[in-house]
Amino acid sequence: MAVTKVPGNSALKLVLHVGDSTAGSPILRNKSLTNLKAAAANQDVFDVATSLGNLQDYQLNGIIRVDNASIIQV
Q: Exposed, middle or buried by CB within 10 Å (0-12, 13-18, 19+), for 14?
């Protein structure tokens, strides 16, 4: 039997630089936004994440896209 991948909802994570430790390494926190459509174009997701990052109290340090999918046997 064949196995197929069924795309599910994705998530967007904004990685924010909230400060520095006493050793000087950055302290990072994630802000997650769920229900991102799997079909959303990467450039569109990047543009939205950058815009949302500009609205945050802390500096945007990175953008992570997490795609979820189910694998089913047909």
A: buried
> What 3-state class would DSSP assign to 49?
helix
One-letter amino acid for residue 14 of the chain:
L
Distances (CA, A) of 52 to 27, 39, 43, 49: 20, 20, 14, 5
Position 6 in a domain: no
Does residue 69 lie in a domain region? yes
pLDDT digits (tens, 9 = 90+) for 2-20: 999 999 889 999 999 999 9
Where in the sequence is the domain holding 69, given as residue range(s)?
A: 12-73
When divided into structural domains, the chain yields a total of: 1
Work out the percent of the chain whose per-residue pLDDT is above 70: 100
Q: How far apart are CA 65 and CA 33, in angstroms?
A: 10
